[in-house]
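Fold it.
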Amino acid sequence: MIETQFYKIIPYSNLLHIETFFSWDETIVRRILADVAETVQKLYHGKQWGILSDRVGWELNTPGAEKLFSQIAANALNETLTHIAIVIGKSEVKKWQLKTMTQRYHNYETNFFETTDEAEQWLASYGYRKIRDNSFAQ
């Protein structure tokens, strides 16, 4: 697990759970995408995986961070990523910004949810669950 004041990354056997907090600038975007890329390289190389992204505690990106996220995310995300469930609560503004940031990528399916339970059910329908693999560092 990787934890900062801006995000927490929790790896499971085929699912990466990411919780986000506060507003992000370019520095935070670079840091989280580097941490995600390193985690993916170590744990999901060559196998299908999904993301559960809890954005309820997140307060949007600066315009520069939004652009940077869109540019870097395509390179940081492995081609074996198949599904992303993004929890946004009831915020249409978050949904709009996240759709803008992720719409350029078509190698995985993205869906938005109000609750974590809804997102987890959707991911589970594709075989992605919060199951620990004994080889993961705790």
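The mean pLDDT is 85.
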